[in-house]
Prior knowledge:
Layout: E1 2-5, H1 10-21, E2 27-30, H2 38-48, H3 61-65, H4 68-71, H5 77-86, E3 95-97, E4 102-104, H6 108-115
Amino acid sequence: MQFICYPKCTTCQKAKKWLEENSITFDERHIKENNPTIEELKAWYKQSGLPLKKFFNTSGLQYKAMQLKDKLPTMSEDEQFELLAADGMLVKRPLLIGDDFVLAGFKEADWAAVLGK
């Protein structure tokens, strides 16, 4: 299982603590140092069943500075994937990637339901 996070993010810290408290084994990946590729993002998007917009960190400074709230609706999926792959700080985090699931953002109840905790 991959845990993709930004270590300074408080939500990521909460999620990591929850995983550790529930004895869930994971490989940690720093999203800013090891950006997701377009291929990874496309696979996660497909597997998650979520709208692509859910993969954007809508509360991030970068998202706001680039005025993506207004721009995303007119961008193609390929353009959105390119943008996400270009800057890990634009990607919603944490991401938890398993063999048969993708969780974007940390909602304890959702994670517990998927992981059987």
